[in-house]
Amino acid sequence: MLVADPSTDPTRMNRVYACWRRLNLDINGNFEPEYGGEAYFKYSDDGGQTFNPPQGDQLSYDDSWATLTAYVDAAVARDGRLYAIWYNDAYFYGDPPNILRPEGFEYRVISNAGTTFNPPLDQVPSYINFEALGFTFASVNGLTSAFTHFNIIKDQPSIAVDWSEEREGWVYVAFASERYWEGQPGGDNGGESDVYVVRSQDGGQNWDPPVKVNDDPQVWEPPPNNLPYDVHQFMPCLRTDTGGRVGVSWYDTRDHVEFGWNSTNYHIYFAYSIDGAATFEENFRVTCNQSDPFDPRGPGERVDIGDYSGMGAYGRWFVPVFTSLERYNPANPDHNRWSNLAGDIFTATVEVKQGPPDFDFDCDVDGEDFGTFQLCFGGSGVPPAPGCRKADLDGDNDVDLADFLILQNAYTGSHNQCAEAQGPTCGGEGESGPQAAPEGPGPVPGDPEPEEWYWMLYEYCRANNIPFS
Q1: How confident is the model at residue 468 (pLDDT cuts 50, 70, 90)?
Q2: pLDDT digits over 309-335, tens only?
Q3: For a surface tag, which of 233, 245, 338, 414 has the fewest beta carbons within 10 Å of its beta carbon?
Q4: What pLDDT, on a 0 to 100 scale, did the predictor assign at position 228?
Q5: Is the pLDDT assigned to residue 260 strictly greater than 60?
Q6: Domains in the chain, please, with CATH?
Q7: What letter does residue 25 receive in the DSSP assignment?
Q8: Beta bridge partners of 284
Q9: Which tops the pLDDT comparison, 92 or 287?
Q10: Contacting residues for 425 by C-beta, under 8 A, at least 6 apart
Q11: How many CB atoms lie within 10 A of CB 246?
């Protein structure tokens, strides 16, 4: 995966990081997933034209050649540090190797233009100690063979670092974890996966207990079974926007309930947090059409929808990227030419209305918010004053006319009705459609219109010798 440093600092603005998993060789010299792999890293200072070091630096701990390392993700902090994280199977290390590193997520923090590693590369990486947090982590891969039509679901950690002034340097990791039903006749009677977010408020030194993101209620099979019904949430992606909101999207099977066979048809769901992932707002469905991974070619045939999901964040918008099966037809030979790979890549735009540019959090974008923005306006290329980073809506380290355009487009006028996050409208083909028009009361009479804000800002800049740029 590639990560571009979003900073406008001239020493960093062309910096690109590449992280990947390199598979180990079997005895015949072939790449085979069951023989493990390692996490690797390279960086570029020329926009991706060249990368160093040529072979890459190994991030994972080279103790056992058969250790499974997979699903590398990374995020850049405002200070330029890169946080790289990956999934690892349990392994032993030490001399002799007698220290257990449990299954879960390891990470390193990389600084000084990709040359300094914490911990150093000759030491075991840091890891999120779920046991110390009172949480039982379990790989979701067991769900693939037992409970769903999917070829593989693995543990993909998704990481982001907060750039907001209030919580700068906080680190968030989203993941899925499996839990089993116990105590029923016959022992374990199934299991389901849920999406969680774990956060660090000190740059990855300590972690808070995981917070569950999906809010679907437990479904029970009708009598005489009276067993919990397995609903799965998996493959999450987490991003933060310039206002400090934390957004999470994931695959979700809650809308497909067929007793006698576990849920497999999925939608994409989304939730966001405005308090640094301490809590999450109500989940809502992003996709209009469900994806059905059923494969009629015969028993044991399973659909592969890929290993990752993605998402971008800009201003007050989040853009999930995912595999959709709404056009998938297993009877079409073109849809099965690559083994069990299936589906198309779709996107959808989600607009989160809570938080900047609603600077006073009163559920509207009105003249009061314009007043806050105006006091922070400094013009293009001027770093935000203390307390004004929230007005840098596009995250380019200034408060200028580009941010003003975002403010104008978010205008609602003064009212007292909070609007929920909005996704695409449904009815047309595909998932990404026009944004739904906000409902509720219109602006209060006498509230300045966005066009008036432009000239008000212009006169303010003239009176205070601020570049209107």
Answers
A1: very high
A2: 899 998 788 999 999 988 877 666 555
A3: 338
A4: 65
A5: no
A6: 2-351 (2.120.10), 367-463 (no CATH)
A7: B
A8: 270
A9: 287
A10: 433, 434, 435, 436
A11: 29
Residue 197: helix, strand or coil by DSSP? strand
Q: Alpha-carbon distance 173 to 353, whole Å?
A: 23
- Non-local (6+) Cβ contacts of 68 within 8 A are 33, 36, 37, 87, 88, 89
- For residue 450, say if its preceding peptide bond is cis, omega within 30 degrees of 0: no
Quote the CA–CA distance of 89 and 231 in Å, as a whole number: 25
Give me the residue label for tokens 């034209």. 49
Q: Kindly give, in sequence order, each residue whose CB lies less than 8 Å from that of residue 244, ignoring residues fewer than 6 positions away.
A: 162, 163, 164, 165, 166, 167, 274, 276, 355, 356, 390
SS3 234: strand
Q: Which amino acid is at 469?
A: S
Amino acid, single-letter form, for residue 22: R
Q: In 3-state terms, the chain is what percent helix, strand and coil (to 5)?
A: 10, 30, 60
Q: Helix (H) and strand (E) counts for the chain? A: 4, 23
Residue 282 CB neighbour total at 10 angstroms: 9
Please classify residue 204 by burial: count the beta carbons closer than 10 Å to its beta carbon, then call 0-12 exposed, 13-18 middle and 19+ buried. buried
Lowest model confidence (mean pLDDT) among 16-20, 88-92, 180-184 = 180-184
359-385 residues labelled b (16+ CB within 10 A) or e (exposed): beeebbbbbebbbbbbebbbeeeeebe
